[in-house]
Amino acid sequence: MATDTETAAVESSAWPLRVEHAHDDDVPEIVALNNMFAPDGLTLHRSEAFVVSHLADYQVVRGADGKLLGQVALDEYSPSLVELVSLAVAPDAQGHGLGQRLITAAEKLAMERGYPELFAISLAEPLFLRMGFHESTILRYPEKIARYRAISRSELSIGRKFCFAKKLTPFPTAG
């Protein structure tokens, strides 16, 4: 639970918090924030090597003190298939709309890169539905099933994970 000081810090800095691309210096904080939620099955464990290799795909939000408050990343399967992964908001910053802002940033990045659709596997059903995603099925994404099997067969059987998808409107290209 957030202390009054932590809550006040988030509320006072909630605007103009902005989502920005992650930097090399963010890697340890990204790994720590992501992996904080892995034991409960809310995120997949991420190694430092994974984060470094996907750094250009990570978006982050920082507090006024520069501390990482939230993050999200894109994970490409092919030029036409991308997943929203590693969505995590620090416990003391939850409930202030940061998850929504991070999802919006991931959508924008996916559109800029020309992906026709974005999908996510999450237990945060209300959040994704509120953000315009529709419930889908993991069976539409055999690439994801293959990755789950490579990581841990238990990922396919831990509770009921929701699969969400959203069609993206590409940005017009100058022509």
Distance between the termini: 52 Å
The spatial strand order of the largest sheet comes to 1-2-3-4-5-7-6
Name of the CATH superfamily = Gcn5-related N-acetyltransferase (GNAT)
Named CATH architecture: 3-Layer(aba) Sandwich
The parts where pLDDT drops under 50 for at least 5 residues are 1-14, 155-159
Secondary-structure content class: alpha+beta
Q: Give a count of the beta strands, DSSP E runs of length 2 or more.
A: 7
The dominant shape is globular
In angstroms, what is the radius of gyration? 16 Å
Could you list some keywords that capture this structure?
transferase, Bact_Acetyltransf, 175 residues, alpha+beta, globular, acyltransferase activity, transferring groups other than amino-acyl groups, Aminopeptidase, acyltransferase, 6 helices, GNAT family N-acetyltransferase, disordered N terminus, 7-stranded mixed sheet
